[in-house]
Amino acid sequence: MNEMSIQQVARLTGTTSRTLRHYDQIGLLRPSRTGANGYRRYGSAELVRLQRILLLRELGLGLTQIADVLGHEADESRALRTHLTWLSTERDRIDRQIAAVEQTVARIERGEDPMDQNMFDGFDHTQYKDEVTERWGADAYRQGDAWWRGLDDNERAGFQRTTRELSEAWTRAAEAGTDPASEEAQALAERHVDWLRSIPGTPAQDPAQLGAYVRGLGDMYVADPRFGKNYGGAEGATLVRDALHAWADRRA
Fold this sequence. Notes:
Elements: E1 4-5, H1 6-13, H2 17-25, E2 33-34, E3 40-42, H3 44-58, H4 63-72, H5 76-109, H6 129-136, H7 138-150, H8 153-175, H9 183-197, H10 207-223, H11 225-228, H12 234-251
Helix pairs in contact: 3-5, 6-7, 8-9, 8-12, 9-12, 10-12
């Protein structure tokens, strides 16, 4: 029987041994066996289950939700076909982005005007315009939109990197079962608020509104899975909400 060590699985999947041990502790992914020395070993069935877990994380589900899904859908093939449909949709969107950028590069290299009606195919930074306007007003959207459009490529990449790193830090904290009121979670909450303050036009710029704004965002992360998936799904979003509420309480 072919088996892999926990370190080999971590390298293969791009996850960490710590995460795999946590999955074992909560019963989400048991190893095929554990040796007398405590070393975990994983076989084919465990790798298929891990693939499903990682795919469901991409869909924004929390660990509790993932356990429920895995428990109710025993047909691995049918379940993976459902995941495959989502992946195909996402691939189509990315392919459209690639084609749009390739076309822009080609036009620039030929000395042509890169402006084209398809140059932003697959991109949509205005997808939350109506929601932002409804929650915080048209002026907030205009300021944020103007700020984003005014950034150069390096500045945009830097902001996206900061956003990604913050999201990953929250996800790791949730997987580790971090207490929202702990120093670690509150340091993340402080980073999160600093990140919010860096975006012009939001209520984060107004000290009088900051506490209520932070609380409202935390609630939204839990209520709306589109936002919650940025923090590892429901479990991560709940940690962010509770930590931001605790941060606001301390500030008050």
